[in-house]
Design goal:
The structure is a homodimer of 149-residue chains.
Chain A: H1 9-19, H2 26-37, H3 44-54, H4 60-73, E1 77-80, E2 87-89, E3 96-100, E4 106-109, H5 112-115, H6 121-124, E5 128-139, H7 141-146
Parallel strand pairs in A: 3-5
Antiparallel strand pairs in A: 3-4
Helix pairs in contact in A: 2-3, 2-4, 3-4
The structure holds a DNA duplex (25 and 25 nucleotides).
DNA sequence: TTTTCTGCAAATCCTTTGCATATCC
DNA sequence: GGATATGCAAAGGATTTGCAGAAAA
């Protein structure tokens, strides 16, 4: 007897929106459906262009606002372009990073376990892999205590 | 008898620049030194502001150009703000990503090994970790064959 | 009915570019 | 001396914001 965990995507959308006090609008639905169809991890602009064919009345800033809201409630994942500006690291020793979601701090740490990770065959078969990076994300010490998260 | 691997940072800078046909200028040196001093993975703008105190003649776009060049020759690492736009992912199943450096494609893959990674105590002690992400970086099938990399 | 959302337009922020001059090798 | 780098200013691209009208709960 398994618990039913998977709702259909739109039911998920409704559920999460209501849970977070967001309204379920036609725009939210069309944006979410278009993103579901996409296999290429699109940008707001790309999604907007695809939707324009069928929904010319939709505006780009609604796509931005909607995707941000979705990411906040955990309905979708931001997989590129987290912070607001480029950041650089001069350390040459093997290490990894923790990123604070609130203040943007990036903390270094080392981990033998992470250093020893292998590249899955499904990827190394076709792609040339030059780098593996493990990134932790959450709230740092200060932000954790300031907010009551 | 150990081979000497670690040159002092400025020697590294000179070495890598020459190796890649880049000139060693006072600007490159001051930018690299300031980045070495920083423990916070600064943005170009932040680095520029810090340098202005002592080098008011330095320009922001030189900081941008220089940091990009450093990242290209592998002297420093870009640790935030890789792509040009935000990208979103609707998949709710556990998975990881490969990012192509040339065309920007993001490929999904699964890995039990990656799913089972632990959070190091040095981080979980102070920080609240909400997410762990493994990202592979390199050249995808198409880009690998097009370029001769 | 009330609060939130949307579309529009303008603003903002980050990054890149063109060009003339200065500089490294 | 010749190729590359720099500084300046302007352009470009991505994202955010203020506001008034529209729509969801």
């Amino acid at each position: 007897m398994t618990v039913k965990r998977e709702l259909d995507p739109i039911a998920q959308l409704r559920h999460l929106c209501r849970q977070h006090g967001l309204r379920v609008t036609p725009q939210k639905i069309m944006i979410y459906q278009e993103l579901q169809k996409a296999l290429d991890h699109p940008s707001p602009e790309q999604l907007f262009q695809r939707l324009q064919r069928t929904h010319p009345e939709l505006s780009l800033d609604t796509v931005y606002r909607t995707l941000s809201a979705f990411a906040e409630i955990g309905l979708v994942d931001l997989v590129e372009g987290y912070g607001t500006a480029r950041r650089f690291d001069p350390r040459r020793e093997k290490h990894h990073h923790f990123h604070c979601r609130k203040c943007g701090a990036i903390l270094d740490f080392t981990s033998d376990q992470y250093d020893q990770l292998a590249i899955p065959a499904s990827i190394s078969r076709d792609c040339q892999v030059l780098n593996l990076r493990v990134t932790l994300e959450g709230y740092c010490k200060q932000c954790r205590s300031q907010t009551n998260i």
